[in-house]
Amino acid sequence: MARRHAAIMFLVLFFSVALIAVDYVSASTDAAAVSASVVSPAASNVAWWVWPLSLFVVTFFLGIVAVLGGVGGGVLFVPIIGGFFPFHLDFVRGAGLLVALAGALAAGPGLLKKGLADLRLALPVAVIASACAIVGAMVGLALPTNVVQTALGATILGIVAIMIMAKKSEYPEVRQPDALSTALRINGIYHEMSSGQEVNWQIHRTPQGLATFIIIGVMAGMFGLGAGWANVPVLNLMMGAPLKVSVATSKFLLSITDTSAAWIYVNNGAVLPMMVAPSIIGIMLGSIVGVRILTKTKPAAVRYIVIVMLLFAGLRALLKGLAIWN
């Protein structure tokens, strides 16, 4: 297993470096134009290698915090990089989707194999959320930057409010499954390792949950955040899936919904390898370190750190968007 992970990391590093090299060579003939479109004029005179290196360092720490705080990397990546780096927001959102997608693709197969992520629960949600994510990505690219920046700030502050008020339930009580979940046979059994027992679960309020994922998909595509922050509360609290099933299924969902939205950004030229490659490497390496630290850290303390970071980044994005309006 260790050799397999090492091989995967080597391939990721190899292709990422190759992408940076290709991107640098292709951009070298018109460096001034590229700098003007990607970064703000004040930062266009900085050497090209400063920004990939800075992204790697920042995303490495974001990867650690994301694991410890139980949030997706995209939720931290977009508001922090968009608020404190001089990159154009379209490129940040495109990179954010690919960052979230990389983590989901790495974790998804293992979660399915362990029986935590449920395919019957994921597929109807994925169809709705991925279609709406495409719409959201198209809308986000069509809107003026100041509108998206302001809406992003307001959304991040909303996420902070959800994280503060949301309660989690390990095993929600579902007395009677609804007709739609029964017809789709959305139920299952998973083995709880901590207690050694088999947990039977089923869901309810399926129509309301699927309708909510329309909004979640649009927001995920529009802001490039991924949707893990919203998937888990809906699956767990609204639809009644166990917490571990909700978390695992949410992670698997990102590999479908983020792919749909990411293609829109790629097709519109809003994905820059020089941003994406170091960000993915940093997030992946940081996540590995975060998993090792997780057993020695109090989750509650890290949760408050994540809330403070998002609050600060959300206010920064909101004020930045409002400043552009003036």
Question: How would you describe what is shown here?
Answer:
The protein is mainly alpha-helical and 326 residues long. The protein has one domain. It is 75% helix and 4% strand. It has helices at 2-27, 31-38, 50-69, 73-84, 89-113, 119-142, 145-165, 179-183, 206-223, 228-238, 243-267, 273-294, 299-325; strands spanning 187-192, 197-202. Strand 1 (187-192) and strand 2 form a beta hairpin. Helix 3 (50-69) packs parallel to helix 12 (273-294), helix 9 (206-223) runs antiparallel to helix 10 and helix 10 (228-238) packs antiparallel against helix 11 (243-267).
Summarize the entry for a quick read.
The chain has 326 residues and is mostly helical. The chain has 13 helices and 2 strands.
Separation of the first and last Cα atoms: 55 Å
User: Major sheet, described briefly?
Assistant: 2 strands, antiparallel
| Number of DSSP-assigned strands | 2
Number of helical segments with 4 or more residues:
13
Structural class: mainly alpha
Which terms would index this structure?
single chain; 326 residues; mainly alpha; 2 strands
Topology:
Blueprint: H1 2-27, H2 31-38, H3 50-69, H4 73-84, H5 89-113, H6 119-142, H7 145-165, H8 179-183, E1 187-192, E2 197-202, H9 206-223, H10 228-238, H11 243-267, H12 273-294, H13 299-325
Antiparallel strand pairs: 1-2
Helix pairs in contact: 1-12, 3-4, 3-12, 3-13, 4-5, 4-13, 5-11, 5-12, 6-9, 6-11, 7-13, 9-10, 9-11, 10-11
